[in-house]
Every structure is written in C-alpha cells, then in structure tokens.
Amino acid sequence: MQNALVAVAHRASATVAAIAGLRTRARAAGAPVVFAQQEDEELEPGTDGWRIVSGLTPAAGDTVVPKAAPDSFLGTELDAVLRARGVTEVVVTGFATEICVESTARQALSRGYDVVLVADGHTTSVRPAAPGRYAAPEASVAHHNEIYRNLRFPGRRVRVLPAAEVDFGHGSPSSGPDAPTSG
C-alpha cells in the first residue's frame, strides 16, 4: 500500500481503512505488524511514490521488509522475521490482488504458515472499461477471495475473512492470526 500503487487502486480508501483497522487491533493484541515494501525501478526508495501511504505509516516496533518481487518471501528476511517471532499464521492484505497478494499468500502456505486472506483488505488496479486482458477489479478481488475460500492446502488452515472478523486474540478457540503482512 505504497503511494504510487494506491493512486491507481480500486477502492483505495476503503482498503487502506480496513488495513489500518487491522493494524490497530493487531498492535493492541501484541501481534507483530510487518510491512512488505516494494523497491524497484518504478518504486525507487526514498521517493514519494515508494512511501507507504500516510494512513498506514509504520510505527516504532513495526517491521518493514524491503522486497523486489511480487512474492514477499523471495530474497527477503520475511520468513526469518516471522519465525523469530513464533508466527504460525499470517494475515495477508495489500496491493495488487493477483500479483503481490496472491504470490505472498501462496508462499506463506508453502513455507508452513496458516493464512487469512482479508476479503476487504486487498485490492488491485483500476482498469480501462474497454474489453481487455484483465478482469475488472471487483471481479479479480471476488475471484481470489473465492479461490482462497475453497483452497485446500495439506496441513494448513486457509481462511477468507472480512477485516471486522479477524481476531488477534491468543489462546481462545477463535484465536486469529499472529502477524498482519501487507503486500
């Protein structure tokens, strides 16, 4: 959820608000908050477009993991950061649904984490109305939510929840995720 990406995002303010609410609740519950921040030729470190949007600015105690690929685990310290904190389940949010969010969620599963895909906490770019190669943004988000609702991954728990239903409490039968991860 970086400035340049949010500028072209479908439902940008609603998605940022959903993620901000999750972040606040995660912090209150003592769950670690981890941001994956893209760095490349289009999102050059230090530029305004590269910065995380003001509504989600990392705070003291949050971790920012720089990444150069859609998969937030590839070539980064994300796995080490999560394992060092004893995280077993990640909450996946961010931009873009079918690129970074999808890649990160699948890799989290492949690396042994349970996953919560936040149904209203990920989005994609606004697309031209003319027929094209991409699904409309609402269709893309809905499609990925449905895939994850039906995804069976051996030994893993996969859930799709609206932000309001994500529980960061520990020790209860409805205990939720340990670490929100913005892709």
Automatic annotation (TrEMBL):
<dbReference type="InterPro" id="IPR000868">
    <property type="entry name" value="Isochorismatase-like_dom"/>
</dbReference>
<dbReference type="InterPro" id="IPR050272">
    <property type="entry name" value="Isochorismatase-like_hydrls"/>
</dbReference>
<dbReference type="InterPro" id="IPR036380">
    <property type="entry name" value="Isochorismatase-like_sf"/>
</dbReference>
<dbReference type="Pfam" id="PF00857">
    <property type="entry name" value="Isochorismatase"/>
</dbReference>
<protein>
    <submittedName>
        <fullName>Cysteine hydrolase</fullName>
    </submittedName>
</protein>
<dbReference type="GO" id="GO:0016787">
    <property type="term" value="F:hydrolase activity"/>
</dbReference>
<feature type="domain" description="Isochorismatase-like">
    <location>
        <begin position="1"/>
        <end position="125"/>
    </location>
</feature>
<keyword id="KW-0378">Hydrolase</keyword>
